[in-house]
Amino acid sequence: MTVIGMLGCGTVGTGFLEVLKRRRWHEGRFQVRRALVTDPQRERWLPIPVELTDRPEAVVSDPDIQVVVDVLPDSAAAYGPVVQALENRKAVLTANRALVAEHGLELEQLALRQNVPFLYRAALLAGVPAAVALREYTLVSPVRAVCGVLHRAGHVVLTAMTQGQSPEDALQEMAEAGYVSARSAAEPDGREDLWSLVLLVRTITGAFPRLDHIRRRGLQGIEPADLAAAQRMGFVIKPLIFWEETPQWHRAIAEPMAVPGTHPLAHLAGYESGLLVWYEDIGPQLYVGLGGGALPTAAALVADLLSLTAWTPRTPVIEPWQSYRADHAMDAYLLRFVLARQSESLRTCVEGLERANVLIHRLETTLHESTRTLEVVVLTEPVPDQTMVDVLNGLRRQSAVQAIQAFRVPAVFRWDPTRVFRTGSTPPGAGPRR
Ligand SMILES: NC(=O)c1ccc[n+]([C@@H]2O[C@H](COP(=O)([O-])OP(=O)(O)OC[C@H]3O[C@@H](n4cnc5c(N)ncnc54)[C@H](OP(=O)(O)O)[C@@H]3O)[C@@H](O)[C@H]2O)c1
Question: Residue 345 above 90 pLDDT?
Answer without folding.
Answer: no
